[in-house]
Amino acid sequence: MSYKSVLLQDVLTIQEIYSIHYFEYMCDFSFPGESHDFWEFLCVDKGEVNVYAGEKFHKLKKGDIIFHKPNEFHDVHSNGLIAPNLVVMSFACTSPAISFFNGKVLQVNEAEQLLLAQIIQEARHAFAGRMDDPYQEELMRNENPQFAGEQLIRLYLEQLLIQLIRRNMIRPLSAVSAAHVKSMKQKADGALFAQIEEYMDSHICETLTIAQLCKSNSIGRSQLQKLFRSRSGYGAIEYFSRRKIDLAKQMIREDQYNFTQIADAIGFSSVHYFSRQFKKITGMTPSEYASSIKALSDHTG
Question: What is the value of pTM for the model shown?
Fold first, then answer.
């Protein structure tokens, strides 16, 4: 037999990465704006922000992603009420397909949110320095990175952009139907995960057990743990603890409660236990976190 190879075609290629950020901002932060000769996107992970892209104003909510083309002026401001979490990435791309994102504000789905999370996770290992420092102008490589981390970042980013284009293009009905059938299980798992998240949030001031989660959400123990491992990388109870701390971080950034009130609101028996758990998960005490975020906010302002 005489085999012939097929040269795989690249339709959308990322040449360089300029920045990868995950910001946790105060509810009153304001970034005055900038422009640069490469692409950038901002995705709202939590909360709301107001953005100007050129002369167009956008109010973005959780799951919204906005793209800024090269040399487009853009700024971002909190609404003064909700402390937002933002993913911001900038990159170089000269592929003609990238023009699809000119002036686009889209919604990321669960699969695309996972890709964003994988990029952030790989970046934490690949690059040194804080990911919430808006004044970092150069990504510095870690001395001992994980194998092929930078390549995975590029692949995940390219996959994210390709999926956004595919999902938002006008496609034949047959293609839409095939994609729908293929994603049925993923959507079912996503709906169940969201249901359990909502249950956790409604019981955030309590101490939940695996048995309670299973009984209240009609799911088996092994299925519950498999779902949370695949969706979050954590066991269900560890994920619940991290969700408590995420809420605590948001309350700290909204600057309306003291640490004792926050500890009580999220179900910790004492402020000391809350502080220990906060440091275990974030690497900082609540006081250190508050000082760090306020310093960044003051610098931005």
Answer: 0.75
